[in-house]
Amino acid sequence: MLLAASSLADCARFTKPRQTSSMEKCLAEFRAMPEVDGILQSRAAAEQGREDPQPFSGMEIALTLNGAIRSTADPDADVDDLCYKQNNVENLKKLIDTLKHNDMPPAVDFVSAKNLDPEMAELWLASGNLLGNLTYDNRRVIQVGAEDFVTDISAADEQLAAIWRRHGQAVKYFRYPAFKRAKDDSSRETVERYLTKAGYVTVPCTIESMDDRFADIYCKALDEDDKSCASLVKVNYYPVLMDTTLRARVVARELAGRETSQILVLYLNQLTFDTLGQTLAWYRRLGAKFIGLDQALGDPFFKAAPGGGDPTGRTIVRAVRDEQMSLGK
Q1: What span, in angstroms and rounded, lies between the C-alpha atoms of 269 and 274?
Q2: How many Å apart are CA 327 and CA 329, to the nearest integer?
Q3: DSSP summary character for residue 310
Q4: Domain 22-327 of CATH type 3.40.109.10
Q5: Bridge partners (DSSP) listed for residue 249
Q6: CA distance 98 to 93
Q7: How wide is the angle at C-alpha 215 spanned by C-alphas 238 and 50, nearest 5°?
Q8: Is the pLDDT of residue 263 over 90?
Q9: Residues 6 or more apart in contact with residue 100 via CB below 8 angstroms
Q10: Strand partners, 202
């Protein structure tokens, strides 16, 4: 018996630990994002969606995009970017075709000029869509200071101006990287003074999709040919988008005392390229109507600053994110 026990102990010592399945690893990626994990655990968005077949009824939403598409993928230059393979002409054409086939108003894509591919920009504008300025280097004003931030905007302006003129884009749109302005009044005034003088319209967002948070998981799954994980990303993306959209609507209503226009931002990544048609159809099926950006900005709501000086959009996005973060606690 002693020998048998000893043999069992030896066996146990050499037993291999249980291998973690690819689906478990995929789920762990979601759990690592507190706001996403909280939403998926509570399933509040899914429950609300089942109670009302059209929870977005009466919502008017302008679609905007963030991110420059490059025509070539360089694994050496983009070694830290799991989604570097998304940089190709085919994805841009797919994006343009999806917008066209869904009868969308012209979409504004905000680009950092440092990553701008002139030929891709020309193709985008020739399709009837628009470009916005996300600064040259996509750095926040709190990182570089007001004067350098203005220089960064100006550098992007110089690069974009010729392209805008060739395609007759009349309105110059600007968006703050990460939607964050300077913290102190003096710096904010410096930047705003430049934007006004240069003729820019500053564009916030009220519904910040988390497609960029899901994108790395999705691209990794595609790279590893893990179809189950790639499908799981898509399945979990929509409850999160549902939650974000509904919360943004509630916060906006509380601030304005009425229904307001909404501005949605999607980030240009492989997940967006592969799901945009489904996302647009999903919003419409749930009752939303898509409108042009200029129409949305015409809502007086966007002229207000209800958050102690913060722009309206930033106030809403921050409130929604705070609520979502609290779900996971």
Answers
A1: 9
A2: 6
A3: B
A4: no
A5: none
A6: 8
A7: 5
A8: yes
A9: 127
A10: 174
CA angle (210, 216, 218) in 5-degree steps: 90
Residue (of 265, 244, 250, 257) closest to 301 by Cα position: 257
Is the confidence at residue 290, as pLDDT, over 50? yes
Residue 276 near residue 95 (C-beta atoms within 8 A): yes
Cα(287)–Cα(268) distance, rounded to whole angstroms? 24
Q: CA-CA distance, 248 to 130, in Å (whole number)?
A: 25
Q: Where are the domains of the chain?
A: 22-327
Q: Which helix (H) or strand (E) holds 35?
A: helix 34-42
pLDDT at 18 over 80: no
Q: How far apart are CA 204 and CA 110, in angstroms?
A: 11
pLDDT in tens, 70-115: 888 766 655 567 888 999 999 999 999 999 999 999 999 999 999 8
b or e along 67-76 (b: 16 or more beta carbons within 10 Å of the residue's beta carbon)? Answer: bbbbeeeeee
Report yes or no: 177 and 138 within 8 Å, Cβ to Cβ: yes
- Supply the pTM of this predicted model: 0.89
How many residues are given for the chain? 329
Lookup: tokens for 153: 């905007």
Least confident range of 122-136, 222-236, 301-315: 301-315
| 7-11, 34-38, 290-294, range with the lowest pLDDT | 7-11
Let me know the angle formed at the C-alpha of 149 by 205 and 312, rounded to the nearest 5 degrees: 25
Q: Residue 154's closest CA among 178, 167, 136?
A: 136
Sign, Cα dihedral of 191, 193, 195, 197 = negative
Burial of 15 by CB count in 10 Å (0-12 exposed, 13-18 middle, 19+ buried)?
exposed
Joined tokens for residue 310: 């913060």
Averaged confidence pLDDT in the chain: 88
